[in-house]
Amino acid sequence: MATYAIGDIQGCYDEFRRLLDKLDFDPAHDQVWIAGDLVNRGPKSLETLRFIKSLGDAAISVLGNHDMHLIATVISLGKTGKKDTLAPILRASDCDELVHWLRHQPLFHHDQGFCMLHAGLPPYVSPSIVLPDFAIAQPTAS
Predict the structure, then answer these.
(1) Domain of residue 117, residue span
(2) Counting C-beta atoms within 10 Å of the first and last residue's C-beta, which end of the chain has fewer, N or C?
(3) Which long-range contacts (CB under 8 A, 24 or more apart) does 86-94 make?
(4) 84-123, pLDDT tens digit by residue?
């Protein structure tokens, strides 16, 4: 089983799929960690969301600022920005289902000693604030 970490797909579905193909990614055996910004900027945010959601447990995703912007736009019926590429998602028949799934993605993921979040933690914030049982490995003296 391989685990891959990829960030900022931003609706670039074709490029994302080519990368997974190049990695010989097999969702039955591998896992991809996606470090936020699944949507916006690229031309295929809808396809990207649908595909990542379809991967089930083979994909672990955290929220990025573009993902939160989509959620806020749907919840508040806000306006999209001039450069946003969210319209296909907002018009999709499965928009509510996709946004519901997206809303349930965490801001922070931790597994087997590794952490993932979209933009990082300021140096003064300990991961233990986010995950109380998180232990930071201390360097050993040589």
Answers:
(1) 3-130
(2) C
(3) 86/39, 86/40, 86/45, 88/45, 88/46, 89/39, 89/45, 89/46, 89/49, 92/46, 94/50
(4) 889 899 999 999 999 999 999 988 888 877 888 888 777 7
